[in-house]
Amino acid sequence: MIALGFRxxxxxxxxAVRFVLGTLCGNAPATVPPGTVRTAEPARTGPSLSVVxxxxxxxxxxxxxxxxxxxxxxxxxxxxxxxxxDHCPELARRAELALPGVRVLPNAEAQGxxxxxxxxxxxxxxxxxxxLDDDAAxxxxxxxxxxxxxxxxxxxxxxxxxxxxxxxGRPAWFPHEFDWVVGCSYQGLPEHRAPVxxxxxxxxxxxxxxxxxxxxxxxxxxxxxxxxxxxxETELCLRIAARNPDGKLLYExxxxxxxxVPAARTTRAYxxxxxxxxxxxxxxxxxxxxxxxxxxxxxTYLRHTLPAAVADGxxxxxxxxxxxxxxxxxxxxxxxxxxxxxxxxxxxxxTRAQAALRALALLxxxxxxxxxLFSLRGVDLxxxxxxxxxxxxPVTYWAGLVLLGLGFCAALxxxxxxxxxxxxxxxxxITFLHATPLxxxxxxxxxxxxxxxxxxxxxxxxxxxxxxxxxxxxYARWPGFFWANDLFVSHIGLTSPGSxxxxxxxxxxxxxxxxxxxxxxxxxxxxRLVWGGAFLFFGCSWVGQDYFSPQAxxxxxYVCVIAAVVHRLPRPGRPRAGPPxxxxxxxxxxxxxxxxxxxxxxxxxxxxxxxxxxxPRRNRRVALPVLLVALTLTLAWDMTAARPFLEENLNDxxxxxxxxxxxxxxxxxxxxxxxxxxxxxxxxxxxxxxVVFLFAALAVLVRPSLRRTALPWLAVAPLPWAVANSYGGExxxxxxxxxxxxxxxxxxxxxxxxxxxxxxxxxxxRALRRVRAAAVPVVLVAxxxxxxxxxxxxxxxxxxxxxxxxAAKWLAxxxxxxxxxxxxxxxFPYAYHDYEYHDRxxxxxxxxxxxxQVRRDPAAExxxxxxxxxxxxxxxxxNRAQEAQVTxxxxxxxxxxxxLRSALAHRSDYPVIHRTADAVIYRVLxxxxxxxx
Length: 933
Fold this sequence. Notes:
- It comes from Streptomyces siderophoricus.
- InterPro entries: Glyco_trans_2-like, Glycosyltransf_2, Nucleotide-diphossugar_trans.
- Keywords: Membrane, Transmembrane, Transmembrane helix.
- By secondary structure, the protein is an alpha/beta fold.
- It is 55% helix and 9% strand.
- The protein is built from 37 helices and 14 strands.
- The strands form two sheets. Strands 1, 2, 3, 4, 5, 6, 7, 8 and 9 form a nine-stranded mixed β-sheet that branches. The protein has a five-stranded mixed β-sheet with strand order 11-10-12-14-13.
- The N and C termini lie far apart (105 Å).
- The N terminus is likely disordered.
């Protein structure tokens, strides 16, 4: 009672002050009884203004008084203030006593904020109606700023800035981008006056005629009591804008209010509940106004505002604290879930399982990507050992990967899922697999990628590739990939492909999506199968031939040529294709030429695939001409530019043809020297490969329609090459790689049963298909497990630290021309820098007897291995990645490198000339003679 009396006294004094000041200024208002509309002062110009405040509880009495007084003290007074009380008679009685000059009205429509606002609009007399929440207080210039823009007749409404006034302080985890959760302006809104789609309900105004013409606020939307639903103002804005295509809804940040945020709204539980309710509200608006207009601002918010917020939270020294990132993920997930549930509430009944699958399909993709982003923080790469990244990636990474697979399965189960959503899942899988090393590693990954950068650098520096460079002379015989990079680097203005080589795995896999989709659409018209095949392709592609290399480049072109040819092959229900368009023929010819001059194996695989495609008579009109072109170009290149290399290696090629059993087992067996972890990795990739081939074979057996496509021919075409040559122990894996475009689709065709309509497929057949569909997520997660081991299990070898890279660069820049570079292996950066000017000796490639001598007497044996020939500078480099490689593969006897470092530690003929945390470089001086100094 004391507080109430104090408020009454203060209110009376304020009214008296206003009356006296008005009298002195010559414009004192006439005394009018409460509830009547005050007429505008004669000096006023422009539209009249009514302010509507809705209240529903006595618990906000203090905030309500602040709201009313803030309007009464405006520099540009409102013409009338209306307080609508929502079904609370006690509050209405108290307000009539405490707020003279304010029209207090009971809500005459349905309970809730929308009904209260409609009541205020019906009773208002002003040209413009402004709305202020009962727990907000307006700045003194609020009304003036709002009315200033209504001189433009095209302006339909004006909204302003809503600043949060935290009762207990802003929580550190609460992101500014989610201030809409507490009814305030959020990061991402315009900072200056600009058109917007909708306003925030705590601070908005409209021309009264427009609200009335649009029918007012929908009473089936909006807050009722403490239920945290909303978006009634969004829906009204959409209707008003639809009625006035030339009109404008303006956001004016200068018209600001302060919105009280109680402690109850700063909890994580409220945050989640409010986000979920917002999703439900957006779904309701989408049903009334259409998903396009209803979600236009949200799409921009998701594409630009939230990614920037996540990046700022993850960036060291960013403005946003890192703890806001989980809140961002939680908020997006809860909102999307609420929207998904809201959209599923349709007149047509749906089972709970269908609703859950639909929600999972919509929610899993953004949630998985946020988990991936969050998992990249604080990964300890130094903790990698025998199983590479598998050991150090946090549980959030694996949870995100599993969630991605489950969400994709859910998306495939709904025939309404759009192709764009499927594409998002495929690109997200590529991101999980191929962007993770890119983000985590400070240096280019994989020693062979460094080798190919070095070859391109030589071409950039000298304009040619050396033909007398040992095993690297092969690049001079198939230089197409390096020519292409030379042209790209020169025209873009770069200095070396090293500036983009780290991105190559991600870019090459993204580029593969297009020809894969084209190929799969030649097999089926089912969108589910097309995207399922693409997802399985990337989920089973463990071979790792996607680094910066001629193989990756040529394989992309191989898939493009095969897709172009298969697309034109005759198939049931399609008339025979006429002569190919000139543009098609030119592009296919250009791709084949590029393949032939870039890589020795890919043209052979291409010829084999085209040969089998030409066997069916119906295919020959399309496939046979392309086969003849590919065969002619391959033979012409091999007999001219590549002939010297083939002649030098003719004996090896012939011997390979005579030992088919050895070729088939090369790379598949021989794991005795590997560590236990690498044996596990090897078995994971072999089992994964076998399962994919098995699934594809079963698909051809159980789906007769696949037998009439090119899939069986493409799957078996690479198999003969497995016994023709070992290809350095990698042929069996290259066979799997070139068969994978076909076998991955076959596996998808086996795993994904056709969707049944509710009226078909009763009985046992339907039950079997349900069991089959339920098994798909289990199989997919198992395949992901094998893929993770196979693809990430060798990263301790493929990863280079900054310190070992700097040491290798020091050696590359300080070793004079004609030096001999010695290492345990070639597994270090810059191993082939200026390879035409230096010789190299890798201990892992020495004869077994020499390796054991190095283990027994390192200093003496190194002098034996490096002492032949004329005197020259000799350097020995040992680094972390070399040791990881020879240990994992057993390329050197156990403990060789540790014994080597120990034996050379105090020898003056092996001085250490450079050392970093992960590498050491020795200068190998001539051997000391007895009695010498």
